[in-house]
Amino acid sequence: MSDNSYETKCKVVPVATIENGKRYFVSLELPMSYGWYDDVSMVVEKNGQDCYFPMKYSRSEGNMAIFEATVDLETTAIINYYFMCRVNGFFKYIKNGTTFDHRDMKQEEKLKMSVNFEAPDWAKGAVMYHIFVDRYRRGSKDEMKEMPRRTIHKSWNEEMVLGPDANGIWNADFYGGDLKGIEETLDYIKSLGVTVLYLSPVVWSQSNHRYDTADYMNVDPYAGCNDNLKSLCEAAHRKGMKVVLDAVFNHTGNDSKYFNEYGTFDNVGAFQSMNSPYSKFYRKHSENGKTYYDYWWGMTNLPVCDGYSPEWKHFITGENGVIDHWFSLGIDGLRLDVADELTDEFIELIRKAVKRNKEDGFILGEVWKNPMRMGRGYISSGKGMDSVMDYSLVDALIRYFKYGDVDKLAYIIRDIKTEYPKDTINTLMNFTSTHDISRAINIFATYDFQEYGEWAWNPNCNDLEWCRNFKLTSEQYKYGRAVYEAYVFALAFMPGILSIFYGDEVGLQGIGNLANRKTYPWGYRDKKLLEFFRYIGKMRSNEGFLKEAELNIFDITRDYLMFERESEEEKVLVTVNRTGEDKRFAMPGEYEKTDSGIYVLKKSMPGHLSPYGAVAVKSKK
User: Which of 20, 200, 251, 424 is most exposed by smallest CB count within 10 Å?
Assistant: First the structure.
């Protein structure tokens, strides 16, 4: 039974930074007309247990009794708390101005806050452009020199190699997209409203995706050089953009300075001798009295690094280590590859190294499922990553717009709102596509995907030849684009970072996570789709309040999605049609008459949605 008759007021204000945390002044106002209060406490959840912080009576003002306390809390990304008191001999539980007669509050009913955990302001609500470097643009006029176990394409539009090449090597074909090519197109990227560049790995590696590092200290020769990375960062900064670099610390390549299986480098690598100083970088296991190296998912070209090794941790995170080196070239943040396979301690050391270089350095992790439920501290501790790639929300939105899955979208949004720290919510990477999934326009255009599979982007067929030859008909493309635009419109108004995978803004196709890495189609762009993305980018730039606005879900039906983003001074109602039919909807009263601004898709208007159309109506509070 709850009693809403007596409104309570509370405030929790940081007053000092202490070692590994903050000190807070806590004040709670309780109505004296309710009775006599004893045992007033702030109750904080810690490691699944309730910790009680007694509050002392301070004074009375009007009909309110004021209780206060000073509380020291350790650094953490999220704390759930509420207040408890005994009044007239009965216990009451208080949160958000409501008094309960029982402690059985749902997680979403509790108050939450962060201690010493703040994501960089520039990452909140940003627009990101995700570039797979080898396939974006070649700026250098120099001829690419032949290198062992690599093949070079003769032209930009030549068909890519899917699967092993003639020598049996995967991902060894290069087009030569480079850092100079990215720098030459910064004005184009900026026209999309982009504020953050996210680059796939650029360090020297043996493959075109470069997730198999050969030398952490040098840019791959086909991508340019260290000076090119520095020049790109400086140019991006001049245009108001930050640069985030993909960081691969879980494994290296076997053809690397550190493992050196082929003897490519002039040093003794771990493969060549267990006595090599680099041997301590790698994880091992013993079998039948012999010691063997571990390989990532059994792939013998990817030896796994030992996250517990002092030598490895120092090499990456120590003074003058890898992270210091990259930040000295001007980057602003890291995206941690397979972050859930890194140890918590290693991630904490990564954070210290990033913050040592830039106080507002950003750390984004590749974590596919809810990071708050994994029993790990890489976000919840407040000492690790700032945020993650939001696979769960993207999957749920795709399923909603493609199949009308109302329930999944509803509970994924609920989980995010109630379980994630606010600064993490505001910096979640909400992507159109990535290098690991099929292109979004392909997903929406056909039913060649697993409706009931683990992820909405998994194709029914994994045959490489089928993926290579797959191409949408003009009718399929037109339909796919219509649904895709509705999806992007909704995604653009969600909390977090809107991330555009290179080419998604111009209709680049690709089914499966190899065929999705085609070269950017310079000269063959869908200009209508491009203008839509520029419109979305302009909207994000204009509506700065979206960076930290709260998300309120009004309605999720099989016809349309309606939600609100709300700040202290402004709010916007977003309604998106997921069907191919005209739909009418009732406008909430406060939005019926407003001249604060309207954004539309496909000639929709307040109260009326065109097929796959949308409307966003602003209102002052």
Answer: 20
